[in-house]
């Protein structure tokens, strides 16, 4: 759970284009945008402004004027899992779509233009874990890191890492590195020698109602306070706060069931 930064400037601001294969954005599609915005606004201090509407109503979350995440309206005729979706940067979404299919994945949405912001697709790996791909134009992606309410890390929760790691190598050029000191199945994925994401093989511990999925970690100033606030706002505690080698961490779900972790990164 090492924080991935891309040319971070003062206060963790990012003005550069993310390198291909680097996580660059997280987005959530929900049924109740207003209540969801209220939940995350209170929890993380987010403010919202309208974003591209190619997939329906959509808002970008801002901290101190910097874009950090997106929340969109789920079409009423769709009954998909409510989940945070990470997006990986690409210089050519069309080519990435071909790579996804060639490596055994599935393209579910796109490629399509999101106005002047950029171009996107939503896909799933061979195990069914959903992710997005973003080709930046006007919108470069997450523009702030390392402060309360910003994405800190993403992690693929899957049955075993070996069965799926070659997919991400083939599509994004991720370089896997097993965590040999761990007594469990864990890999970090690297771009240019820098860790950008993790993979955690949990075997039969995988939730039956979710299957393999990407888990987003958000940085918070105090994990215990964040958990208490999340539950007060209608969320649910899934994994109690505990200390890890990377910092104190807990896992919760928002009122619509979207699962995410909060972490106070050790620095």
TrEMBL record:
VOC domain location: 22-136, 150-265
CDD domains according to UniProt: SgaA_N_like
Q: Return the InterPro entries for the record.
A: Anthracycline_SecMetBiosynth, Glyas_Bleomycin-R_OHBP_Dase, Glyoxalase_6, VOC_core
Q: Which domain of life is it from?
A: Bacteria
Write down a Pfam family by its short name.
Glyoxalase_6
PANTHER family named among the record's database cross-references = CONSERVED PROTEIN, GLYOXALASE-RELATED
The name under which this protein is listed is VOC domain-containing protein
Q: What organism does this protein naturally occur in?
A: Streptomyces olivochromogenes
Taxonomic lineage is: Bacteria, Bacillati, Actinomycetota, Actinomycetes, Kitasatosporales
